[in-house]
Amino acid sequence: MPELPEVETTVRGLRPVLEGQRLASVETRRPDMRTPFPPDLRQRLTGARVTGLGRRAKYGLIDTDRGDTCIFHLGMSGRWRIDPSEIGKHDHFVLETDAGRRLALNDPRRFGFVDLAPTVDLNSYPAFAAMGPEPLSEAFDGAYLAEVFRGRVAPVKALLLDQRVVAGLGNIYVCEALHMAGIAPNREAGRIARNRLDRLALAVKEVLLAAIEAGGSTLRDYARPDGNLGYFSKQFLVYGREGEACACGAAVRRRIDSGRSTFYCPRCQR
Question: What's the distance, CA 100 to chain centroid?
């Protein structure tokens, strides 16, 4: 599933094509994806000017001058295609700007979705209302982790994946950040020393920024809007490397936690 860096990379790819442009045409090519398209989506977006693009957790945001924000989620296999030579059967949502640029949201499995909400109400949008801070924001640091982890016996990895604790972190980058910080994924969160939490918060930021710089990770269906692949997967230190040697020489291990694979080094991470 595309995670925060993939969504951030997608938004950055869409920005130069969409920002400041008027939407001349808006087409929904089926009634739904994971959820039905809003019935007034075309009416509210056609003719609107895009005033900005952003991201909240793993959701992309397209703001318009009509006070609406188009919210999109890429699901398991979704990606935007810019100026495709032809519209295919998996291009479910198509935008055309007054400059003649065409963008198609392609999603073969249809686990993604498109929604529309008043921009002023975004903080209370159901998916965002209970979310924690963005991991790349100043609000996310060791002091914050110390506060939310205090007294918690749950494993640190499980809490980092909890969107109420921090928004947008997924399995891949949590595994990598815990390895960088030298913290075992099953360590009780409330028993981690403050200096180690400082290191963990920094590691989360460093891993995410490196992944964004590399264009995200190419896993199965993900590609950037320009069609290029993301290359951060080539920098993985533990994720997907079961049995391979960590930098310390120990073999990377894998186990299943709540149905997800956890990759870690038993020597480096304590």
Answer: 29
Among candidate residues 2, 5, 185, 225, the one labeled active-site is 2
For 264, other C-beta atoms within 10 Å of its C-beta total 23
Mean pLDDT value of segment 219-225: 52
Active-site pick, 12, 34, 66, 260: 260
CA distance 80 to 106: 6
d(CA 194, CA 192): 7
Q: At what angle do helices 194-213 and 171-181 cross, to 10 degrees?
A: 130
The residue among 141, 151, 155 whose CA lies nearest residue 183 is 155
Q: Residue 219: its pLDDT value, please? A: 47
How far from 112 is each of 48, 120, 147, 190, 245, CA to CA, in Å?
Answer: 23, 23, 33, 35, 36
Q: What spatial distance separates the first Cα and last Cα of the chain, rounded to whole Å?
A: 28
Q: Which of 75, 68, 73 is nearest to 52 (CA)?
A: 68
Catalytic residue at 225? no
Tell me if residue 176 is catalytic: no
Q: Say which of 55, 58, 79, 157 is annotated catalytic.
A: 58
Of 54, 42, 50, 49, nearest to 11 (Cα)? Answer: 54
Mean pLDDT value across residues 226-239: 67
- Quick: pLDDT tens for 71-90: 999 998 899 999 999 999 99
State the DSSP H helix or E strand holding residue 165, giving kind and residue range, or none if neither. none
Asked if 6 is an active-site residue, the reply is no
- Could you say which DSSP state residue 76 is in? T
> Which two three-digit tokens encode residue 174?
């949590």
pLDDT tens-digit map of 55-68: 999 999 999 999 99
Residue 239 near residue 223 (C-beta atoms within 8 A): no
- 28 contact partners, CB below 8 Å, separation of at least 6: 37, 41, 42, 92, 93, 114
